[in-house]
Amino acid sequence: MRDHDQSLWQQTCRERVESTVLTNTLTVDLAVIGGGYTGCAAALTAARAGASVCLLEAQEIGHGGSGRNVGLANAGLWLPPEDIRAHLGAASGDRLINLLAVAPADVFELIERHTIDCEPVRNGTLHCAHSGAGLKDLQNRYAQQRAVGAPVELLSTDQTRQRTGSAAFHGSLFDPRAGTIQPLGYVRGLARAASEAGAQFFTRSPVQSLTRSGDIWVLETERGSVRAKAVIQATNAYHQSLAASAPAYVPVYYFQFSTAPLSDNLRASILPGGEGCWDTGLIMTSFRVDQDGRFIIGAMGDLSHAGSGAHRRWIRRKLSELFPQLSDQPLTEGWHGRIAMTSDHIPKITEIGPNALSVHGYSGRGIGPGTVFGRLVAESLLREDPDLLPVPMVSEYCESWTGLRRAYFEAGAALTHFVKARF
Ligand SMILES: Cc1cc2nc3c(=O)[nH]c(=O)nc-3n(C[C@H](O)[C@H](O)[C@H](O)COP(=O)(O)OP(=O)(O)OC[C@H]3O[C@@H](n4cnc5c(N)ncnc54)[C@H](O)[C@@H]3O)c2cc1C
After folding, report:
1. CA-wise closest residue to 381 among 87, 152, 38, 14
2. Considering the chain, what percentage of its residues have pLDDT values greater than 90?
């Protein structure tokens, strides 16, 4: 079977990071576990602040969601502002809303400052209404976003057709703060910048145990160890080993397929402004183009099981429905990734012990939030100030029936795709 961990992003990424396997014993101020956006942003922040920092990654930088995602650098969370306030309370909710409103600006500023080679396009995103009910959802989101000062615009059916090149949508919500990136390039670029600032990176070095010795944390890998004053566990949906500090979430798979670079004629008819898009469907669809003009379409689903043919057949049909001009285009690359969903869709910061925090659960919105959370969790630990955290930390976080709920989501996506591909 094809390896669905191999993505288009690995083929087109031009950023490289120097790293080796950990084979000795180190002593540092901050040890970071996991080389995604959260871990690399934390390492960059700590190194720039003058702390000694090392990052341990089980595989390669960007092995997890950070190297597989759609590349939509959005403002805010998946949840609209009123829901965030309802879950966190007004004060914490407003703080998170304000922090994440500028998250794309933070991402694009880091890209510029460190000349990260990751195809940045800051031309906004379009949340497209797949139905009349989807348009109502967007009208509600528009009202809530405008109430907190977000410069979003509600576009008509005609405007959406002109912007996307598809006649399938009932309207869309345009967010000019957002944009698209080459997701693996961005995470590798963050790692390179952190490395240039003095952080040490070790890959193929899964942390196998995390224990306390006096007032120091000890992290053991197969061939080395790290002694650290503070620890950030940023392993999210790709957590392995370390059963005692495993994050609780519902795993949801999301797959993508890409075409070869489109001809100039086709390219001119599809997303001429280069926005990144997703729709309001419950089993949502996303689409965008990359720098070379490949069209990339994605949806919820796991490509690795026997029933995954339904996802492939459906995505082919969906492509033709949305963009009839692309119906003959072969889909050359396909890959998937795992998203850590929490029940309330709010990211979690849990306390593993003194000066040790775990961060997870961006629920499919992790480029901006991962960058912001990584930075603030590092600052909070180094300054020993919990008020700097983007959400209040909790001593533990549980999710019930995660296996069952994963099966429910996957069966729902496969069944929907099976039925829609046939009729
Ligand atoms: C298919 C897909 C599409 C998505 N689309 C978008 C999008 O368009 N926009 C958006 O904002 N978000 C999107 N997301 C969400 C986003 O990608 C994630 O929220 C984000 O990448 C999480 O970053 P992270 O650093 O927290 O975790 P990850 O990137 O998952 O990194 C965790 C790392 O920890 C390592 N690790 C695990 N255990 C150990 C250990 N014991 N020792 C050492 N290392 C360990 C893993 O190997 C992994 O590299 C998407 C996610 C997926 C999967």
Report:
1. 38
2. 88
Distance 18 CA to ligand 1 centre (A): 20
Helix axes 90-101, 81-88, angle to 10 degrees: 140
pLDDT recorded at residue 1 = 42
Q: Determine the Cα–Cα distance for residues 144 and 165; give it in Å rounded to an integer.
A: 28
**Which segments of 49-89 does DSSP mark as H helices, in order?**
81-88
Q: What is the pLDDT of residue 123?
A: 98
Q: For residue 423, what pLDDT band results from cuts at 50, 70 and 90?
A: low
Give the integer Cα–Cα distance in Å for 66 and 182: 10
How far apart (Å, rounded) are the C-alpha atoms in residues 303 and 305?
6
Section 40-63 average pLDDT: 98
Quick: pLDDT tens for 257-267: 999 999 999 99
Decide: 247 in ligand 1 pocket, CB within 6 A: no
CA 147 to ligand 1 center in whole angstroms: 31
Using CA positions, which residue lies closest to atom 16 of ligand 1? 366
In short, whether 123's Cβ falls inside 6 Å of ligand 1 is no
Residue 209 to residue 220: CA distance in whole angstroms = 5
Sign of the Cα torsion 297, 38, 184, 74 reads positive
Please identify, by atom number, the ligand 1 atom nearest to the C-alpha of residue 205. 43
**Cβ–Cβ < 8 Å for 112, 178:** no
Helices (H), 197-308: 264-269
- Ligand 1 center–CA 169 separation, angstroms: 30
This prediction's pTM: 0.96
208 CB near ligand 1 (under 6 Å): no
Residue 305: band (very low, low, confident or very high) from pLDDT cuts 50, 70, 90 = confident
Residue 175 has pLDDT above 70, yes or no: yes
Cα–Cα distance for residue pair 409/126, rounded to 1 Å: 25
Q: Is the CB of 66 under 6 A from ligand 1?
A: yes
Determine if ligand 1 sits within 6 Å of the CB of residue 240.
yes
Ligand 1 centroid to Cα of residue 146, in Å, is 30
- Residue 367 near ligand 1, beta carbon < 6 Å: yes
Mutational pocket test of ligand 1: of 296, 303, 367, 376, the residue with most ligand atoms within 8 Å of the beta carbon: 367
CA dihedral 108, 65, 85, 388 (to 10 degrees): -60
User: What's the mean per-residue pLDDT of the chain?
Assistant: 95
